Amino acid sequence: MEVRSLTMVIKGWLFDAYPLDNRMVFWIKQENGNTIRLEDNYWSHSIYVASDYIGKTELEKLILKQQRQGNNSKLIKDYEFVSKYKRITDITRSDVLKLTLSDPTKALTLARRIERFDKFGKLRLYNVDLLPAQSYFYDHDIFPLAFCEVYNSNNTSRDNTTCSKLSWNIKEEEVWSIDYLIPHFKIIHLDIELKKEGKIPKYTDRIDSISIKQNDGNEDIEIRNESEQDTIDELTAKVAKIDPDFIFTEDGDSFTFPYLIHRAEINNTELILGREGSVPIKKPTKEGISYFSYGRIYFKPATQKILGRIHLDKSNSFLWNESSGLHGLYEIARICRMPLHTASRASIGKCLSSLQFYYATTQKDILIPWKPTLAEHLKTFEEFIVADRGGFIFEPKIGVHEQVAEFDFISLYPSIMLKKNVSAETIQCSCCPDSKVRVPELDYNICEKRTGIIPLSLKIVIDKRSRYKHLLKSPTISSELKSIYDARQNSLKWILVTSFGYLGFNNAKFGRIDAHIAVCAFDRQILLQTAKIAERDGFRILHGIVDSLWIQQKKKNISITKQDYLELKESIEEQIGFAISFEGIYKWIVFVPSKINNQLPVPNRYFGVFEEGNSLKVRGLEARRHDTPPFFSKCQQEILEIMARGNSINEVKALMPEVSDAFRKYSQLLKENKVPLEELVFTKQTSKNSNEYQINRNTIENDAIQQLDIEGKSLKAGQILKYVITDYYNRRKKYSKNNRRRTIPVELINEKITTTTTASYDVRKYIELLAETCNSVTQPFGYAF
User: Is 587 exposed, middle or buried (0-12, 13-18, 19+ CB in 10 A)?
Assistant: First the structure.
């Protein structure tokens, strides 16, 4: 029985949230810069169980029976039947069993035990793979970095047991705001130096020093002691004294923290860097996972969480690398309602899923299936041929073209989903068979009675990105604010880019291939209609892909102006009903052929120069690729900038002697061994584990992988391999008994390279590759090196 109650109000920004010892812990960043810790003992994470084969009584008996037999009493705190929508397609509610967990972190453990109760598919589970913090955010309609008033009620019972209950007050419109404030955060950058015993850093190497760099102007700190234990303990003390909000590392998940944890264990001490003073950082049970996405293998190391602070590993954060840093991360964490730590490492698909989960649970009261079961609608062979056509592509006309305009539909696929109400549950719904909204070519009906989860989720993303882009065009915007808005809109762009692919992703909770097919059908209709409008007005299509069109005046002798293209833009928007942007007029643009077959066009490889500002646009060339050595990219970019001065094809050809001089300059640097090795590094993403490559295949990539393997570093599928070519033609026979050393991995670059010449890289091969890189842009103008 409760006898005393005390309530206090805390104001500030919600910074971090996580479960700990059967309660939820929150850190609030206050306006005075202090950070305060709060707990909620009243809320508990829940999962749900349902069945189409057994009734409520049988389901309850089954759970209770298995609870006794399986000793699950420690996992289930309470249970009750509640009314929910089990499937995204349901139009009526069903009774499902809600299991409240004693430990919010044990949802997956409990779900796996329940799944073994009976035959596969007889019992269905929901909300299993929601993080407790996400589930709490959804239930209380809060999000990271929301400025809030928190009412903390501490209730003390007769036995002096104190429980805290939190109530949150956040302005409804804040998540839609574009003018939200972010508090000042303390940030440190952590780096370690090892006393390496070999060529590759290993856990057995002792710590040489640890450096702490601070972002607030304070002096950098170097920790160096004779005793490793003293070094680790001093690191703990320094971090506690600085009390940072963010800890940045370059490889904290993959090496730095696992290494420090190991050294702490060896020295019988603990690595405590979080705000939970008694909780040390622990090594994850798994090193990480390799996964397949959009035709490539990726590797994600296990995360290293620091309670009460945000650890941001720059090498393991898509949002950091692709969305201009922290402000992109803030935006995604807010609208997708994910803890900052989780959002910093999550794929964009996972962020999008969280956004959909929020709207499903709070707006629709729909449960989140643990394992998606929504099947594709059956199709005849003839229907399948029509349906499975993808987006529309006008193959580019290979060669150089003058006076070409580019039009891009603004977020076309997400806009189709939003305007046409395309979602898994709305396509061929059972409630609107006579709907007036039909999918082109396929005649699928689209629901008119309810808004789908997909368009409901995308509305905030499309709206906010549009507003940010509008503000970026303001002539009075400050450079600081411009940088912030650009980072935010860029992060939202990735959500929109991913939204279409997730419609057809087989593991997406609310995906369905029929919705994916419908969007493609609308896209084909829109591009074909746009092409007809352009041709009717005297233009021709040179190239078109998905949501972009390159248009040229049919008659070469007729003068065309920007105003003519703007009038065409207005005509397209009026007749099509979707916003389109006029990107500009190219002085000239090149659509390049395939490197394998020069008769085949490549839709996503082109380069050109706009009339306004002489700005270059390059897609698919070496200068834009992440695997190209920086030296090659610089050379190609310099050549392109020379060519950009030409206002016509003939003027560009006249600049070729200057282009040739630039090539010779870079070639000479290679010949004179004046190029730093870091400028010549090739970057490749491995497609399988090191031990799965054939040892007898002497490719340059395999050569580098085997060298790393010998030194004790085995790459996992999806990890990055970086190397420099040292002897491509294997002319130096003295390297090893296997004569394998044609490359050197970057990890070994500081080691002495045995060589018969003064060069540390293969000059001949690099000059050949440099010529290929330059020919990519000069050959269309009839010039090759």
Answer: buried
The answer, yes or no, to whether residue 1 has pLDDT greater than 50, is no
In 3D, which of 102, 92, 81, 91 has the Cα closest to residue 22? Answer: 102
Task: Answer yes or no: do 539 and 425 share one domain.
Answer: yes
Q: How many CA atoms lie within 13 A of 96 on its CB side?
A: 27
Do 206 and 148 share a structural domain?
no
pTM score, whole prediction: 0.89
Considering the domain architecture, whether residues 454 and 603 belong to the same structural domain is answered as yes
Q: With bands split at pLDDT 50, 70 and 90, how would you rate the model's confidence at 240?
A: very high
DSSP letter, residue 449: S
Q: Count CB atoms within 10 A of the CB of residue 161.
A: 10
Of the candidates 336, 375, 373, 330, the residue with the CA atom closest to the CA atom of residue 356: 336
Instruction: List, in sequence order, every beta strand (DSSP E) within 625-784.
Output: 682-685, 720-725, 743-745
| Residues 232 and 278 grouped into a single domain | yes
Same domain, 168 and 68: no
Cα-based distances in Å from 148 to 31, 283, 362, 431: 11, 34, 19, 41
Q: By residue range, what is the domain housing residue 411?
A: 393-620
pLDDT tens digits for range 44-88: 999 999 988 888 888 888 777 666 665 555 788 888 999 999 999
Give CA separation, 87 vs 172, 354, 473, 510, in Å.
28, 17, 43, 9
Q: What distance in Å separates the CA atoms of residue 344 and residue 353, rounded to the nearest whole number?
A: 15
The CA distance from 288 to 351, in Å, is: 19
Q: What is residue 323's predicted lDDT score, i.e. its pLDDT?
A: 66
> In this structure, are 57 and 100 located in the same domain?
yes
383 falls within a domain: no
pLDDT digits (tens, 9 = 90+) for 626-681: 889 999 999 999 999 999 999 999 999 999 999 999 999 999 999 999 999 999 99
Q: Strand (E) positions, 51-195?
A: 76-84, 94-101, 124-126, 147-157, 162-169, 187-195
Structural domain ending residue among the three candidates 603, 620, 637: 620
Last residue of a domain, one of 312, 346, 380: 346
Assigned domain for 652 exists: no
Number of domains in the chain: 5
